[in-house]
Design goal:
The strands form two sheets. The chain has a four-stranded mixed sheet. The chain has a two-stranded antiparallel ribbon with strand order 5-6. α6 packs antiparallel against α7. A hairpin with a 3-residue loop joins β3 and β4. By secondary structure, it is of the alpha+beta class. It has one domain: 3-Layer(aba) Sandwich (Glutaredoxin), CATH 3.40.30.10. Helices cover 45% and strands 10% of the residues. It is globular, with a radius of gyration of 21 Å. The chain is built from nine helices and six strands, in the order βαβαααααααββαββ. The longest helix has 17 residues.
């Protein structure tokens, strides 16, 4: 359970719940976690009363708009492992992704700065298209090898999910939603989030990493039960048993 309840600005929506998910669009575990969360939601009895909000988290805030070079070599250097170990790690992730219906092609990946992608996700949220854009960005990066740090690519991808390309270009060429991205990152720091994905359920329960769907479903149910305790109406002790004592 998270300390402080709804201290960082999210929680119940009416009588439903909010799930805030911190993630980055170049994070493979975040893509896998999205699928597992969706699987859990498909079995959650109150799914239609859950509001999902994608929150920004940059794995590499200092990345250039497009990073050139060998993906596997960079991974090996980053984690201090051999090239063979890096290849094996990617193959393992690719297999895990496939089990969730995802197709990863790390050899084609074109990493880059994700700040603008996160700004667009905030823009899309106001138009009810945040989840669609998040999905499109994941597929574009991991499956299609699109450079999601470049503005032209972002405009095309956003247009594909129904966003106005002129408005998207205006957002990208301004500082729009920059403050919202920074606020997400400040909230993540306050929560102690150091890795993603990280799910915050109803402002009270935190799920670190891409946990399996059963684990996520268990937390959703626990959060719902906590927010909606059973109310006993007109109790009558004469029609119930307590232990081995029954009133006749």
């Amino acid at each position: 359970m998270l300390p402080g309840g709804n201290a960082v600005g999210f929680g119940k929506v009416g009588q439903g719940m909010k799930v805030a998910i911190y993630s980055d669009v170049v994070c493979p575990w975040c893509a896998i976690g999205k699928r597992r969360f969706e699987s859990a939601m498909s079995r959650f009895e109150h799914a239609d009363e859950v509001e999902v909000e994608w929150r920004a988290f940059e794995l590499d805030p200092n990345a250039p708009r497009r990073r050139e070079g060998d993906y596997v070599g960079r991974l090996a250097r980053k984690y201090g492992i051999s090239r063979e170990q890096a290849v094996a790690a990617n193959e393992n992730l690719t297999a895990m992704a496939a089990a969730e219906g995802l197709e990863f092609h790390f050899a084609d990946a074109k990493p880059g700065n994700t700040f603008d992608a996160h700004r667009l996700l905030h823009f899309a949220r106001g138009l009810g298209l945040q989840d669609a854009l998040k999905e499109r960005l994941f597929v574009a990066y991991f499956t299609e090898g699109e450079p999601i740090g470049e503005h032209d690519t972002l405009v095309l991808l956003a247009a594909e999910v129904g966003l106005d390309p002129v408005a998207v270009r205006e957002v990208l060429e301004s500082e729009a939603f920059a403050a919202e991205v920074r606020a997400d990152e400040a909230d993540a720091q306050e929560l102690g989030v150091s890795g993603v994905p990280f799910f915050v359920v109803d402002g009270r329960f935190g799920i670190p990493g891409a946990q399996d769907a059963d684990t996520i479903l268990g937390v959703l149910n626990r959060a719902w039960d906590r927010a909606h305790p059973l109310t006993v109406i007109t109790p009558d002790a004469t029609v119930a048993c307590e232990g081995d004592n029954c009133t006749v």
